[in-house]
């Protein structure tokens, strides 16, 4: 099987053209013509993953996050792309990389839908749209719960003890509607203001915490990966079944 055929199989599970328009998905390193000699899945490129691939003679990797590239603007106004150090290591080792990123967030049974399942949300609607009906966020109802108890639910469901809130969240007596968006979703904050009690995502900067206070919206920030790992584990299960082999999935537990 070559990389192109593998991408077709992945595309049947996670339609790559449903990603955000400017996202870096699909074959991000290597070539579609290369033969797949062993396969693994990783959340992103790192030295542990590279060591595993080399030691086990594996030449193809599926990642959630894209390889890091730096865009350089030339004097004539054109752009060039330069691989960062980690990306260059994978290129030099001859590793093919297929990236999912926001296509995995928005797809049926993807990262956003797994958060819906974990928090037992009902009457859900999609926001942060990419194309058509697809979007990275979900908003819906949960059984009424106190704010203190809900924080315990988050720690348990997302297997993390790193949970940060804004000041307004601490004033909530109870809540029964939430919005969730895997990864970093504060650019979509305006889509949920006045529509929900609480918005859960990662990487919330101070100015957005203050905006939540101002607009009476509870904000909960968990580790970036914590919102993505449940959906990625499900993807690995589905792809393992599709290929008839158990795939290894690597992610840095420190950032869970």
Tell me about this structure.
The structure is a single chain. With 256 residues, the chain is α/β, with parallel strands linked by helices. It folds into two domains: 3-104, Udp-n-acetylmuramoylalanyl-d-glutamate--2,6- Diaminopimelate Ligase, Chain: A, domain 1; 111-224, 3-Layer(aba) Sandwich (Udp-n-acetylmuramoylalanyl-d-glutamate--2,6- Diaminopimelate Ligase, Chain: A, domain 1). The protein has helices spanning 3-13, 47-55, 85-92, 102-106, 111-118, 147-157, 206-214, 229-243, and strands spanning 26-29, 39-42, 60-63, 69-73, 79-83, 96-99, 122-129, 135-145, 163-165, 175-184, 198-202, 218-222, 249-250. The strands form three sheets. The chain has a six-stranded mixed sheet with strand order 7-8-10-11-12-9, with helices on both faces. Strands 1-6-3-2-13 form a five-stranded mixed sheet, covered by helices on one side. Helix 5 packs across helix 8 (229-243). The longest helix has 15 residues, at 229-243. The protein is globular and about 55 Å long.
């Amino acid at each position: 099987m070559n990389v192109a055929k593998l991408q077709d199989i992945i595309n049947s599970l996670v339609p790559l053209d449903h990603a955000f328009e400017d996202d870096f998905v699909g074959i991000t390193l290597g070539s579609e013509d290369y033969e797949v000699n062993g396969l693994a899945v990783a959340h992103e490129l790192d030295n542990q993953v590279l060591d595993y691939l080399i030691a086990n003679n594996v030449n193809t990797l599926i990642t959630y996050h894209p390889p890091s590239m730096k865009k350089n603007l030339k004097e004539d106004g054109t752009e060039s792309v330069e691989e960062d150090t980690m990306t260059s290591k994978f290129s030099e080792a001859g590793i093919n990389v297929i990236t999912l990123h926001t296509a995995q967030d928005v797809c049926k049974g993807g990262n956003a839908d797994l958060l819906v399942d974990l928090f037992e949300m009902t009457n859900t609607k999609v926001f942060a749209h990419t194309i058509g009906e697809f979007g990275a966020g979900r908003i819906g109802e949960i059984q009424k719960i106190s704010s203190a108890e809900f924080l315990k639910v988050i720690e348990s469901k997302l297997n993390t003890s790193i949970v940060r809130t804004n000041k307004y969240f601490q004033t909530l007596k109870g809540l029964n509607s939430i919005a969730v968006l895997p990864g970093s979703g504060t650019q979509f904050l305006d889509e949920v203001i006045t529509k929900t009690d609480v918005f859960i995502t990662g990487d919330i900067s101070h100015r957005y915490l203050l905006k939540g206070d101002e607009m009476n919206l509870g904000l909960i920030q968990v580790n970036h990966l914590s919102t993505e790992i449940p959906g990625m584990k499900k993807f690995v299960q589905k792809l393992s079944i599709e290929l008839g082999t158990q795939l290894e999935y690597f992610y840095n537990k420190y950032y869970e």
